[in-house]
Amino acid sequence: WSVKGYPLKGPRGDITGGIVVTLDITERKKAEEKIQKFNRELLRMNEELKSVDRIKNEFLSNLGHELKTPLSSVIGYSELLDSLTLGELNEVQKKACESIYRNAEKLRRLIDSLLYLSYVNSGKIEYNFELMHISSSIDEALAKVSRKLEDKSITVDKRISHNLSFINAEPEKIQELLYNILDNAIKFSYEGGKIEICAYVHEEKMLKIEITDYGIGIPSDKLDDLFALFHQIDGSMNRRYGGTGVGLYICKNIVMAHNGSIWITSQEGKGTTIHVLLPLKGKQSDRKEYINFPDN
């Protein structure tokens, strides 16, 4: 029961009596107890979910490392076979070796993506920043996708402004960013197509990177969701082009960790451009000596 008293005052302000109100709050108390019990259950379930999530991340991390060890041997020996270090190969053997290497690399990239996600979710992702130039990372990313470019006879038009200063970044993560973007560009390009890579100074303090393909393009109503984890434009494209839907999510995380920004422009049937802005560090060279590509 709930009991409350209220005084009654006379004309002169003196208390002449009182009112006592009693209220049966049994049902309210029962409801409050149910809510408290429900909240305790929610807290317990939340702790269990955190524990499961932690176990999942640890499992993915351990599994990734265990898979990478034998996979490195597969990739290493396939490279030795391909380079003819272990002897001559006939045409059938060469094609088989190329298939082994290509699929092993695909598996390695998938494992690396899973490891990255597990590190992000567990808060263990680390960045070791240093001053670096973007041109070397672009060249290394292109070297990693060279086989894919050759397989589809895609040419690359690379235009890097020479007046760029350094960026403060982690080279390995920047290569990962560029690789994922180039991999998408190749995947959705036509046979015999072209990819353009531009890097130039944007508004004095930013490095702008643009990677453009002239492939199938993306519907305008799908652009906003492209950086979501595990997002695919539709099921049929996933079956045709493959992919796990984590590449652009990883790209966005890497760019944000470098205090930059990333976005996509596209026309269906005409191609796609991925734009990246990263802060420049240090003094730039004399611009008059070099070509500075305009902002499109």
Structure report:
The chain has 296 residues and is α+β, with helices and mostly antiparallel strands. The protein folds into two domains: 91 residues, Helix Hairpins, CATH 1.10.287; 160 residues, Histidine kinase-like ATPase, C-terminal domain (Heat Shock Protein 90, 2-Layer Sandwich). 48% of the residues lie in helices and 22% in strands. The protein is built from seven helices and nine strands; from the N terminus they run E-E-H-H-E-H-H-E-E-H-E-E-H-H-E-E. Strands 3, 4, 5, 6, 7, 8 and 9 form a seven-stranded mixed sheet that branches. The chain has a two-stranded antiparallel sheet with strand order 1-2. A hairpin with a 5-residue loop joins strand 1 and strand 2. The longest helix is centred in the N-terminal third of the chain and has 57 residues. It is elongated, with a radius of gyration of 30 Å. The C terminus is likely disordered.
CATH architecture of the largest domain: 2-Layer Sandwich
Count of separate DSSP helical elements: 7
Q: Which superfamily, in CATH terms, is the homologous superfamily of the largest domain? A: Histidine kinase-like ATPase, C-terminal domain
Largest sheet: 7 strands, mixed
Low-confidence stretches: 283-296
Through-space gap between termini: 74 Å
Number of strands: 9
What class do helices, strands and sheet pairing give?
alpha+beta
CATH topological fold name of the largest domain: Heat Shock Protein 90
Overall shape: elongated
The level-1 CATH class of the largest domain: Alpha Beta
Task: Indicate how many domains the architecture comprises.
Answer: 2
Q: Which radius of gyration do the C-alpha atoms yield? A: 30 Å
Describe the oligomeric state of these chains in a short phrase: single chain
- Average pLDDT, to the nearest integer? 81
Query: Strand-residue fraction?
Result: 15-25%
Order of helices and strands: EEHHEHHEEHEEHHEE
